[in-house]
């Protein structure tokens, strides 16, 4: 839910103006790279306007009020996504939070449909890690421009040039460093600003609790002051220049090159530079492609799509909250919009009730902003909402599940609650639900990208729908898309099963790649297509 503090001044009017001053981005990283720390550092350097849901770090930071709060706290992970709105240099920055745990990747991936750019946060000692690579693949698929931040430079790590090589080799992106570290990893003194040639020297503050002072110096002064560390940085920067590693706005926006910054989020080093890059280089919201082949211009009447559903924010009311990204026009609280999927009206008048905190609620939101809509039980992940001029955005991608389990009500007498709960979890995208005539409705198959999605489903079935369930893991690890004409032959194969998604799409499940190969040898004509890789 977008909220605004009461002291927020009236923003300039006009959708085009408002859109031009908005940047919406997500941080993609592997757990522990420092995403929560960076988020807090950004909030320290920019003025936080509002929080949609909560941006929650590890234990002891902020908490979310949700049904599975106990689970989150016990594990010290964040399960739910929301967004944080910041104001920096007259630009409204929406940081859409991605759950950090590898198991919640499906949710994380959907968030990437709601942003216009991403920040790839890399641990200087570890380089590109597994989850970063997976998330990068989704960004690449969607053509999302990426800014790279090498974090934890205050700790011993790899060499900067070596990290640049790794980015080139493993992502195919051309790294174009905007800053270059002065001092090796573990001896972070400041950065060479490669666009001005000047030295930005950082000064540590106690515990990184306040904004780290930055001093800007000319190269001559830097050379005297930092000696060899400066010389090395300057030489390496020249090497980069000779190799053509200079920022190019066109290739950045096309997802071909990536500006690189060096930082130590925990000390608040390099955070201003990131905010400046977001304001100066990251793209504002643009027209959004629609299903009919056209596009919704930002000045068109209001439209948005739901990228995240969240239940139980208020346990007393069993509320459903839908997080929607505004794509065009102005969102005004109280507005009655239409859901493109159902054709039914949806009233947004309760928008303010989601959080009873000491902030006033936003009355307006613009393209790029995230709004939280309460009483959203009729909405589903991927739904388009519009005012006046109908539009429908393409469905959000569903990701290739790798974990499968049958689900059954523990108490057969609670079948009605069971069905309702499963349908709701499916609508929210908590898990994918697969069915077949063979298995019947009593025991559908749950499919997930990460097994913890099952735990959330199980927890909610018991606590929210009063229908405790039993899960029985299945031995499949791979799903491929197929069509009805092949279903019979595939089903006849040992260890292979064909199941139906809610959309009608058929998925063939296999225990592993080896089995796919052997089935394809036996049936070379059978069509099996990969789903979007997660
Ligand atoms: P995540 O959200 O990406 O999972 O990472 P998070 O911010 O929780 O950071 C993971 C750990 O890395 C934390 O340490 C955090 O303090 C540390 N960290 C983040 N940024 C930096 C940095 O720039 N430099 C250094 N040296 N460390 C950084 P922790 O072990 O979980 O807790 P703590 O006891 O160290 O605070």
From TrEMBL:
Protein role: Increases the formation of ribosomal termination complexes and stimulates activities of RF-1 and RF-2. It binds guanine nucleotides and has strong preference for UGA stop codons. It may interact directly with the ribosome. The stimulation of RF-1 and RF-2 is significantly reduced by GTP and GDP, but not by GMP.
Residue segments, region Disordered: 1-20
Subcellular location: Cytoplasm
Family label: Belongs to the TRAFAC class translation factor GTPase superfamily. Classic translation factor GTPase family. PrfC subfamily.
Subcellular location, principal: cytoplasm
Name listed for the protein in its UniProt record: Peptide chain release factor 3
Keyword GTP-binding listed: yes
Protein origin, superkingdom: Bacteria
UniProt KW keywords: Cytoplasm, GTP-binding, Nucleotide-binding, Protein biosynthesis
Biased composition, class Polar residues, residue ranges: 8-19
Gene: prfC
PANTHER family on file: PEPTIDE CHAIN RELEASE FACTOR RF3
NCBIfam families with a match to the protein in the record: prfC, PRK00741.1, small_GTP
Keyword GTP-binding set for record: yes
InterPro entries for this protein: EF-G-like_DII, EFG_III/V, G_TR_CS, P-loop_NTPase, PrfC, RF3_C, RF3_dom_3_sf, RF3_GTP-bd
Domain Tr-type G, chain residue ranges per copy: 20-286
Species, as recorded: Georgenia halotolerans
Binding site for GTP: 97-101
Signal sequence residues: none
């Amino acid at each position: 839910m977008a909220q605004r503090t009461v002291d927020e001044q009236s923003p300039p009017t006009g959708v085009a103006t408002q859109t031009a001053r908005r940047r919406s981005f997500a941080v993609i990283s592997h757990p522990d790279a420092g995403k929560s720390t960076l988020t807090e550092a950004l909030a320290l350097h920019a003025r936080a306007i509002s929080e949609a849901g909560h941006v929650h770090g590890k234990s002891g930071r902020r908490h979310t009020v949700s049904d599975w709060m106990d689970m989150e706290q016990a594990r010290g992970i964040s399960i739910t996504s929301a967004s944080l709105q910041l104001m920096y240099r007259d630009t409204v920055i929406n940081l859409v939070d991605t759950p950090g745990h590898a198991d919640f990747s499906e949710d994380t991936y959907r968030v990437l449909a709601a942003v216009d750019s991403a920040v790839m946060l890399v641990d200087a000692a570890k380089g590109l890690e597994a989850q970063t690579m997976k998330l990068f693949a989704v960004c690449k698929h969607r053509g999302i421009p990426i800014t790279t931040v090498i974090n934890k430079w205050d700790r011993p790590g790899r060499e900067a040039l070596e990290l640049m090589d790794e980015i080139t080799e493993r992502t195919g992106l051309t790294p174009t460093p905007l800053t270059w570290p002065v001092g090796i990893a573990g001896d972070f003194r400041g950065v060479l600003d490669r666009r001005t040639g000047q030295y930005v020297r950082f000064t540590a503050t106690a515990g990184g609790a306040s904004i780290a002072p930055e001093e800007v110096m000319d190269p001559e002064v830097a050379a005297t002051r930092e000696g060899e560390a400066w010389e090395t940085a300057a030489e390496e920067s020249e090497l980069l220049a000779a190799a053509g590693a200079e920022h190019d706005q066109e290739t950045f926006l096309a997802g071909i090159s990536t500006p690189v910054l060096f930082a130590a989020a925990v000390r608040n080093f390099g955070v201003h530079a990131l905010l400046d890059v977001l304001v100066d280089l990251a793209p504002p919201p643009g027209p959004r492609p629609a299903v009919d082949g056209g596009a919704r211009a930002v000045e068109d009447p209001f439209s948005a799509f739901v990228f995240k559903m969240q239940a139980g924010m208020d346990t007393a009311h069993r509320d459903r909250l839908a997080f929607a990204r505004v794509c065009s026009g102005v969102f005004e609280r109280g507005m009655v919009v239409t859901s493109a999927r159902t054709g039914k009206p949806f009233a947004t008048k309760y928008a303010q009730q989601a959080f009873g905190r000491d902030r006033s609620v936003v009355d307006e939101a613009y393209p790029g902003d995230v709004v939280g809509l309460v009483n959203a039980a009729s909405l589903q992940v991927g739904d388009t909402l519009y005012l006046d001029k109908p539009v429908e955005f393409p469905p959000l991608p569903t990701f290739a599940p790798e974990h499968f389990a049958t689900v059954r009500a523990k108490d057969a007498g609670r079948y009605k609650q069971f069905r309702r709960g499963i349908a709701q979890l499916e609508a929210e995208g908590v898990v994918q639900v697969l069915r077949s005539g063979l298995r019947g409705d009593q025991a559908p198959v749950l499919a997930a990208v990460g097994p913890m999605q099952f735990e959330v489903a199980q927890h909610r079935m018991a606590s929210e729908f009063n229908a405790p369930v039993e899960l029985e893991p299945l031995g499949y690890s791979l799903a491929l898309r197929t069509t009805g004409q092949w279903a019979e032959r595939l089903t006849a194969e040992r260890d292979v099963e064909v199941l139906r998604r809610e959309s009608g799409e058929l998925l063939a499940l296999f225990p592993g790649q080896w089995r796919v190969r052997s089935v394809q040898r036996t049936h070379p004509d059978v069509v099996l297509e990969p789903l979007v890789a997660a």
